[in-house]
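Bumping my old thread because nobody answered last time. Still need a sequence for this structure:
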């Protein structure tokens, strides 16, 4: 693939121009060592080459063949958005986001790998941008090539990525109708999975609003401002508001057989078009049933 940038600032080098557009050092190393090229006005140059105003810098990216270690599966993911740079899918509850050593198949990464193989896309590497817990459903974002991945996680664009979740808890009149939880989260020492609120943990910030109340339950619309493992589940269970169905953090499966958590909204500024991508999903049937 080829991507071009026009220089508008006197004194820029190739490196500084690309940095201004969010291109990372790591991606430039990938181009340099994995078979790509950097051209200035059609001539191959290095990143320290000095630029004149209106010079055009073109990156020719290496073809990404992918790895044989990720096994493609013959099940299409539910695609809700796709262009040449990004793919957004609706993950069902019960599938992990990525494979593990003991579970090399069945993950969303396997499904997306199978999808891009069947589509015969030139770049065959799976780039996961946002993950979800196995029993959380909803929107997941993938990049379709390395530059798309590099740009969306760069600070210039990363702050535009917003995720909202529907969570269902047992109704409690003591819970304010809206609020913010700002409590650090760390590992439980005896577990590789479980997390807890801990003064030694990493910053974790969650805001929420109660959007419905019925059948002794509350439906919350939750925004993650940080991305800690199990953040929503840990924050609400710590305050005594366990998610319905969340066995790991004190709940049970009497009403639903997984934690009632669904990523319903995903938005970001598209690094290649500056368009606002804004995707919304309904709650899945098992969570809707709780609130009928």
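Sorry it took so long. Here it is:
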């Amino acid at each position: 693939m080829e991507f071009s940038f026009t220089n508008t600032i006197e004194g820029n080098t190739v490196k500084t121009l690309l940095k201004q557009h969010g291109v990372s050092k790591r991606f430039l190393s990938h181009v340099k060592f994995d078979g790509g090229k950097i051209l200035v006005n059609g001539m191959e140059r290095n990143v320290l080459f000095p630029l004149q105003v209106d010079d055009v810098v073109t990156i020719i990216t290496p073809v990404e063949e992918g790895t044989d270690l990720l096994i493609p599966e013959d099940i299409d993911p539910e695609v809700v958005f796709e262009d040449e740079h990004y793919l957004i899918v609706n993950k069902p509850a019960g599938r992990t986001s990525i494979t593990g050593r003991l579970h090399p198949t069945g993950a969303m990464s396997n499904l997306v790998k199978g999808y891009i193989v069947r589509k015969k896309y030139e770049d065959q590497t799976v780039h996961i941008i946002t993950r979800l817990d196995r029993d959380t459903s909803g929107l997941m974002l993938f990049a379709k090539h390395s530059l798309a991945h590099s740009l969306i996680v760069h600070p210039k664009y990363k702050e535009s990525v917003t995720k909202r979740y529907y969570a269902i808890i047992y109704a409690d009149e003591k819970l304010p109708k809206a609020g913010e939880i700002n409590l650090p989260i760390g590992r439980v020492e005896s577990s590789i999975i479980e997390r807890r609120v801990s003064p030694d943990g990493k910053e974790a910030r969650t805001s929420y609003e109660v959007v419905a109340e019925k059948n002794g339950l509350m439906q919350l619309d939750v925004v993650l401002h940080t991305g800690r493992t199990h953040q929503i589940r840990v924050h609400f269970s710590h305050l005594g508001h366990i998610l319905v169905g969340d066995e790991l953090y004190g709940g049970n499966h009497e009403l639903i057989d997984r934690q009632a958590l669904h990523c319903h909204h995903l938005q970001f500024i598209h690094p290649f078009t500056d368009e606002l991508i804004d995707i919304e999903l309904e709650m899945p049937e098992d969570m809707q049933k709780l609130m009928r």
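Helices lie at 14-20, 25-33, 108-118, 146-152, 155-158, 231-238, 285-290. Let me know if any region looks off to you.
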